[in-house]
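Protein in question reproduced for absentees:

***
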Amino acid sequence: MLTKLAQLLRPKDKDVEVFITVHDEDLLLRCEESKQFASLSRYRYVFVGHRPVGKLSTLKEKVIVARECQYNIEQYPHLYDFTAWYCLVNNRLITQYHVVSLQYDMTLQTENFQEQVLAKLLEDSNQILGFLPVSTSLYFSSHREIPLAETLRKKNVDWDTLFAHDTTKLWPTGNAVAMRTSTLRQLLQWLLEWLPEFVENPYAGHVAERLIKVYSLLSGIQDTYLPQMLHHTMRDSHGTTRILART
């Protein structure tokens, strides 16, 4: 019923495309062999980093290698999903009106993921939709290794004033988000202006992840959530997630 409703509601040019960030060819092949994302009607992988991709020759239609694209920021090794977003936006690789960003170690908890996402996005075009919400009192600002508060100070943003207007008290973890493609473009442009403040930090990807919430508050684009749609294994392939265990 929901699938038919979404199809009736959406204009033909307002579909949703899913992009999955991955950094290792064996992990990507494992996703394909296990049909991890097979229920999605439209998805591609964005391969970030400098590891080999020779085993992916038969999957060229499904894999975008960021470093092979004309516009990329692979000179910065700690940005992960942000590197993927930069590649997608600046090389005009997103073909649909809405876009979803996932990671390779996420599994879908529903068979009609795209339909539910699209129905939610069509309710209000001015939103950033998250799937793995966590309270802003957890994992958001309490790590000295993740210089979020320091980054805000450098940009003259007062923490207390900013979060006094937060209605959800949640933030979208894992860079698992959906939005209009135009919103992603605006978010990316805004993040680029902040990038010099933290790009050299080994935890830069975690800063960028948290800045999605900051952008939501500063721009007035509401953060919304569809929980229980995804499971995130958090394999910590980059060795940076372990600090969360210390909270």
Notes: DSSP finds eight helices and eleven strands in the chain. The chain has one domain: 2-7+14-232.
